[in-house]
Amino acid sequence: MADKLADKAKGKGAHDVSAGKPTMADVADYAGVSTMTVSRALKKDGRVSEDTRKRILQAVDKLGYVLDQAAGSLSSRRTGFVAALVPSINNSNFSDTARGITDALENSGLQLLLGYTDYSTEKEEKLIQSMLQRRPEGIILTGGSHTPQARRMLEKSGIPVVETWEIPEDPIDHVVGFSNSEVMADLVRALAGRGYRKFGYIGGTTARDTRGSLRRAGFLKAVDELGLGPGRVISFGVPPISIEQGAQAVVSMLERWPDTEVVLCVSDLSAFGALMECQRRGMKVPGDIAIAGFGDYEISAFCHPRITTVNVDCYGIGKLAAGRLLQAINGGGVAGDELTLTSYKVILRESA
Amino acid sequence: MADKLADKAKGKGAHDVSAGKPTMADVADYAGVSTMTVSRALKKDGRVSEDTRKRILQAVDKLGYVLDQAAGSLSSRRTGFVAALVPSINNSNFSDTARGITDALENSGLQLLLGYTDYSTEKEEKLIQSMLQRRPEGIILTGGSHTPQARRMLEKSGIPVVETWEIPEDPIDHVVGFSNSEVMADLVRALAGRGYRKFGYIGGTTARDTRGSLRRAGFLKAVDELGLGPGRVISFGVPPISIEQGAQAVVSMLERWPDTEVVLCVSDLSAFGALMECQRRGMKVPGDIAIAGFGDYEISAFCHPRITTVNVDCYGIGKLAAGRLLQAINGGGVAGDELTLTSYKVILRESA
DNA sequence: AGTCATATTGTTATCGATATCAGTTTCCAA
DNA sequence: TTGGAAACTGATATCGATAACAATATGACT
Predict the structure, then answer these.
(1) Which regions of A134-282 does DSSP assign to beta strands (E)?
(2) pLDDT tens digit string along B316-344?
(3) Is the backbone peptide bond immediately before B258 cis, with ω within 30 degrees of 0?
(4) Could A247 and B302 be called an inter-chain contact, meaning their C-beta atoms sit closer than 8 Å?
(5) How far is the CA of B49 from the C1' of D3 (A)?
(6) Which of A35, A100, B61, B80 stands 20 to 30 A from A115 (CA)?
(7) What pTM, to 2 d.p., does this model score?
(8) Each residue of A27-45: pLDDT tens digit?
């Protein structure tokens, strides 16, 4: 009733244009239609006559009206959000994936909620919880390791989930990724094919970076299968992997096993660090020692010598994952497989 | 009244737990309190007795309840969103800024909505429009160039705006940045101090990357002021700036002005490309030609030779911008200046 | 002319939380 | 004891949009 008084004060039905943000009701008043018609006019699919639509758009422009999606979400029960969690955005592999997701979402009307886990499942759990409060219509994760609580929340949420960048043993829902161990093993085989025999590996230690651990496992397995003795492994600290760590690790490698012929790195960044450190010490790459990376970062294609690596189509992972999510959200049932294997390619360049 | 019937059908007050997502009312029922008490219990500041809080949290856990922030936003009129637009996330300078923003927002309870403009003011305008529909409580932009429509929308929105990475002539609201031209000029002076006299510059052409244009302007101005004749400029295409462009541009530079002593680049990425290309051609850097970059990317500190550059504290820009935004959102009036100049530092290394 | 499909617009009832104000209880000082 | 502040808790009325269904107009077709 306070409302009625207010209305009276301003003149019945004449919503006050000057004060506060205009609402859809203001626009409706101004255009002489109901809010429902305004609502319809503002969506592309709305069935409204050209004439009234024009009138409404004029009113919108005149009043400077901006649709309030929070209100819309509540009543339509569709928030138009999609959540994606990546370990770090300060890593061009993952930012490429984020870009792929963004591009795939471009014309879907969905808004991306991006979060960084810092390679920590605990932080991932917290993020999942806070993301779910926004009622996203789907969620994209990196990797297959999650806390039990995180899994529970995701399962209960009832929204489609896409895990990326790995092939989890026990997937939650959809998967778009590749086998890190197998890809690394392929790289080992390719290099063995080039004649290298004494293999070294540089990578992180912790279980925190599961993809890194898988790559190391793939390295060890392949070296072993080729009968090239136990692989030589130098570990450094926790992710994020930096160039500097690669530089330090290659020094340790050379101290411990001076006759190492080729060093594979968990990431192009560490490979680059290793390469530069070798050059700084006057070593020839690949003459004195060969170096290979993982991830096909831009630098690897342009540094000197160019770095042998594996391209794992980071952008494509994001694009496919988001596409799969859209299918699951819109199409309801998904056609075909729940598992999408993404392509990868060993890229032999000059460094190994 | 339909409500009452429904209630009756299920048994008065006994919200159906098994079906659909539980709401706050379900939790309230289960815990034997009102929704208001549940609401209070779920915020840290809520004044609820320890006893009932525990009971409520148990109910939440039991029912697997997840707060719906869309509904909360509507009634509290606070969405808890902050929007940030960066030109590209696939550029470590801007992803560092994004990281700074994220970190500053960490414990504020605010959720970041991140968008990529691809260096286009048109796309920025579209993004601003769609972001505003989410009713963010503040917005962070990169750069000072915006479409008139974008400015209008921002001004009408009534939320605090922070422009970053530049000092706009006509700021919308708050600014956290530095003078791209002045910083580049400083770099020129520092290199002139090292004895270089014939200056070249590699950078983009378009007005699209205003920061790039400002840097070039600063270069030309400084070279001129030092009486070192007109600077030699090689332009390449539109952003994003790639390593490859730097490699190509340095070739053009050497063809056109073979006696160039030092080449400054709009970004470390192009500097790196130029450096590698020179090495590939057997040129000594800095012996035959010196190279400098801008932005202090990680590679510059580790490549061989290390690249002389300018650090512009990308992370700090993000952190300060978000801090400033928080002040404006919470504190209401902002203490002190609307303009925050961020620090920068010329870093002389081996390449120039 | 009458019937029915189509196009357009309106009415009503929520969506799920929180602000606000109003009770109720507790506890302590006088 | 008792008044009254402080601590809790609850009832009610929104917040601003949209779904679902209803109503009306328009026109085509038999």
Answers:
(1) 139-142, 161-164, 174-177, 199-204, 232-236, 262-265
(2) 999 999 999 999 998 765 555 689 999 99
(3) no
(4) yes
(5) 25
(6) B61
(7) 0.91
(8) 999 999 999 999 999 987 6
